[in-house]
């Protein structure tokens, strides 16, 4: 029987994936808002916004993405960018325009997965077609995905036509949707290699799939070795959208879409984001029904963020505040894990011990409890009920619509938990790890 929560312990939440409110750039947001309202044409700015977002903001994002990623395929242009009110809304709008409950045969989610995306797929009428794909050692098990895509396609009764027709305003419907967070993944923290990204795009082209890539953590990156700089260890892995347009044989519609958000780098409540894809796909995004009716779905917020982006305030906030803070927290957490948890059989998934020339980033890391005497769920329960520390147990990261997902996870992610360093200060993170160590010892008795 697990003891009740100790009244002497303050709660520590290592589960929630939110940025600390003190890191929100309130002064910069205030300055940007004031600058907006000092404009002589501010009344015009408060009208319905252009469906795809203001041309100035789309151009500013394109320039920022070009600077951030230096894509080998060439500069990002504004015609590749549409404004959303965040990554969740971006995914929902993409599904409204480019999927069809009748024609789209599968949604493929890498497991462990960001489970809160599942209701968005269900809302699009794709319930019953949501499947898991093992993550594997390199971001995704391409062999498994390829076999399953072929199996589904071969067993689909043909001919089959979309109910959403070209005449009805749907110029392109994809047969499959693949959902992935390829860089600093939520929840695993892993990053796909370039070769796996190329392999995924080749599969997508073969099976008429749209790969929706949540690229919300990419710019939050730092060297794992103290004293090293990003200039020394290299830039972020190329995004899927950049690889797609640089590979021979790309189509006018493309097979990838980058889903971005300012939630993690400005504030969740700002509700502004963007999608990037081939210009034909982006143009069609402007015909989503809610956007045609109401204009840009993040118009006012986007005008504020545009000021921050154009002035350099956002880039400065990322480089001078977010990255140093998150890097310090990540270092504190990983050092505490190696000191207090590694002797108990715990490991950070993907940790090979080598730090030179490596890059970390995002919000999350994933622990494996396979080397412990107690099970992952028991450890998570003991940590919460006896030591008042909340972690995200592996069971919540299965694909709930796929009954085989948890079976596949029995040897991998179900034996672990996700931890987030973005919310708590260093001293709290270390305290939380020490409590988890105590919970492991108690749960192993």
Automatic annotation (TrEMBL):
GO molecular function: 2-aminoadipate transaminase activity; pyridoxal phosphate binding
SUPFAM superfamilies according to UniProt: PLP-dependent transferases
Pfam families cross-referenced by the UniProt entry: Aminotran_1_2
Domain Aminotransferase class I/classII large stretches: 30-400
Protein name: Aminotransferase class I/classII large domain-containing protein
């Amino acid at each position: 029987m697990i003891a009740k929560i100790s009244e002497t312990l303050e709660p520590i939440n290592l589960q929630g994936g939110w940025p600390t409110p003190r890191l929100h750039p309130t002064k910069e947001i205030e300055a940007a808002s004031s600058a907006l309202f000092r404009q002589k044409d501010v009344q015009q700015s408060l009208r319905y916004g252009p469906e795809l977002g203001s041309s100035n903001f789309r151009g500013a994002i394109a320039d920022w993405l070009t600077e951030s990623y230096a894509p080998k395929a060439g500069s990002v242009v504004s015609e590749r960018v549409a404004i959303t009110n965040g990554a969740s809304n971006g995914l929902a709008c993409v599904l409204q325009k480019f999927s069809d409950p009748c024609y789209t045969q599968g949604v493929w989610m890498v497991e462990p997965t960001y489970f809160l995306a599942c209701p968005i797929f269900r809302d699009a009428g794709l319930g019953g077609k949501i499947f898991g794909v093992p993550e594997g050692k390199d971001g995704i098990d391409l062999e498994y995905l390829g076999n399953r895509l072929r199996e589904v396609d071969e067993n689909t009764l043909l001919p089959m036509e979309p109910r959403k027709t070209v005449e009805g305003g749907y110029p392109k419907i994809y047969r499959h949707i693949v959902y992935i967070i390829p860089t600093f993944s939520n929840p695993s923290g892993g990053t796909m290699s370039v070769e796996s990204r190329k392999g995924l795009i080749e599969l997508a082209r073969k099976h008429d799939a749209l790969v929706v890539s949540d690229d919300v953590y990419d710019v939050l990156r730092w060297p794992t070795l103290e004293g090293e700089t990003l200039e020394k260890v290299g830039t972020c892995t190329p995004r899927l959208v950049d690889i797609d347009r640089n590979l021979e044989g790309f189509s006018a519609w493309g097979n990838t879409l980058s889903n971005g958000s300012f939630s993690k780098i400005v504030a969740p409540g700002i509700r502004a984001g963007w999608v990037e894809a081939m210009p034909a796909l982006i143009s069609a995004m402007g015909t989503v029904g809610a956007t045609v009716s109401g204009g840009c779905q993040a118009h006012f917020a986007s005008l504020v963020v545009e000021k921050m982006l154009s002035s350099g305030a956002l880039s400065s906030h990322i480089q001078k505040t977010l990255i140093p803070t998150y890097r310090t927290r990540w270092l504190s957490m990983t050092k505490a894990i190696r000191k207090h948890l590694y002797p108990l059989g715990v490991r950070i998934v993907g940790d090979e011990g080598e730090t030179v020339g490596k890059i970390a980033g995002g919000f999350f890391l994933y622990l494996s409890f396979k080397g412990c005497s107690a099970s992952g769920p028991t450890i998570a329960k003991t940590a919460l009920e006896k030591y008042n520390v909340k972690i995200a147990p592996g069971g919540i990261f299965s694909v709930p619509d796929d009954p085989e997902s948890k079976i596949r996870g029995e040897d991998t992610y179900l034996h672990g938990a996700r931890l987030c360093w973005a919310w708590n200060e260093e001293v709290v993170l270390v305290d939380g790890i020490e409590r988890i160590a105590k919970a492991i010892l108690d749960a192993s008795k």
